Amino acid sequence: MTFNFGSGFGSHSGSAPSPFDALNGPRLAGPSGSHPLHYVRAEELLRPSDGAVTGQILFDHPARVGEGITGRIRMAAFKEVSARKANLRLVGLRLDEVRHETEHRDSEGHVTSTDRWVETEGKLFVTDAFLEPPIPTNLQPGATWEAPFAVPAPQLGPPSAHLGESIVAWALEIRWDIAMGSDHWVAFFLPLAQNPDLLRAGIGKQGGMSLLNSVSVGDAAIGVLSPLPAPVGQEIAVRVAWPSAPSGKGARIELHRRTNAPNGVEGIIASVNIDPALLTSGAAEARLLVPADSAPSFDGAGLEINYIIRVLVDRRLRSDAAIERPVGIV
């Protein structure tokens, strides 16, 4: 029996529902062990229109979880639109990398080869329709329309996030329900930021210990000297006191990201080497840069991502000794 780790994977394709279907096809697939979403920006997924209507949206302020989203919509019809109903909708996408496997058998039923690959699979987990503003159901070519709008953001999120192997994306969409035909739509990408107040309030799994200045781990304490939750693109200042830390040939203070994405991997996103002798004296310090493209801490839509400060001592001829604490990031 042979294994084809993604041989011919160009015949595979990933997909997401409209209006996030702009990249549907082989770009959203890859061979076994690959991560096609690592090379995709969430904005690229959005197809802004089916061609019948074009539009523009002006937001009054950046959108955050749990707050109101306000602004003004402008649109113009390229084709005639005649719909049963029309609504402004808030739609949320969850897009995951998923591992697949297919066995090939001979005429006697014996497995001769196995094809393994990765495809992305998407679903809309929110499709909230609003009665205001009232959207015209009939438009003639060349007709224009504009109106202010005010809609609520999801109370608990999740925020927009690229987890590397999964994506959460949001859009505001006007969709016309066409009888006996394909719906028309015009959609606007919506960056939805995490709300630090949710983390501070301990909502979900991301608050609590991740926002404490100091967390005890046995006789050790891992402290964060900089403000929490930590903003992406900035440094986290860490101080560690570990009286019983073993001796070793080296030590590190690291920032890890952990996710439950189906094809997800744990990653070390920042690491600083330190003298292990400083751990027992309580003078071990490091500054860990949070990459600017990091997803915020969150759990929602069945996904979660959290961050860990991990302290390791590299012991000779023995496994590493390690302690860790959670840390909140927005």
Q: Which key terms come to mind for this protein?
A:
disordered N terminus, Immunoglobulin-like, 49% strand, mainly beta, seven-stranded mixed beta sheet, five-stranded antiparallel beta sheet, 2 domains
Any overview of this molecule?
- By secondary structure, the protein is mainly β.
- It has two domains: 2-193, Sandwich (Immunoglobulin-like), CATH 2.60.40; 197-327, Sandwich (Immunoglobulin-like).
- Helix content is 4%, strand content 49%.
- The protein contains three helices and 23 strands.
- The protein has helices at 42-45, 196-200, 277-281; strands at 2-4, 29-31, 53-59, 63-64, 68-77, 81-82, 85-105, 111-130, 138-139, 144-152, 161-162, 166-177, 184-189, 192-193, 214-217, 220-224, 235-241, 250-259, 267-274, 284-289, 298-300, 303-314, 321-327.
- The longest helix has 5 residues, at 196-200.
- The chain is flat, with a radius of gyration of 24 Å.
Based on the coordinates given, report the CATH architecture of the largest domain.
Answer: Sandwich
CATH topology of the largest domain: Immunoglobulin-like
Low-confidence stretches: 1-9
CA radius of gyration is: 24 Å
What's the short story on this structure?
The protein has 330 residues and is mainly β.
SSE diagram, text form:
Blueprint: E1 2-4, E2 29-31, H1 42-45, E3 53-59, E4 63-64, E5 68-77, E6 81-82, E7 85-105, E8 111-130, E9 138-139, E10 144-152, E11 161-162, E12 166-177, E13 184-189, E14 192-193, H2 196-200, E15 214-217, E16 220-224, E17 235-241, E18 250-259, E19 267-274, H3 277-281, E20 284-289, E21 298-300, E22 303-314, E23 321-327
Parallel strand pairs: 1-8, 4-14
Antiparallel strand pairs: 2-8, 3-5, 5-10, 6-9, 7-8, 7-12, 11-12, 12-13, 15-16, 16-17, 17-20, 18-19, 18-22, 21-22, 22-23
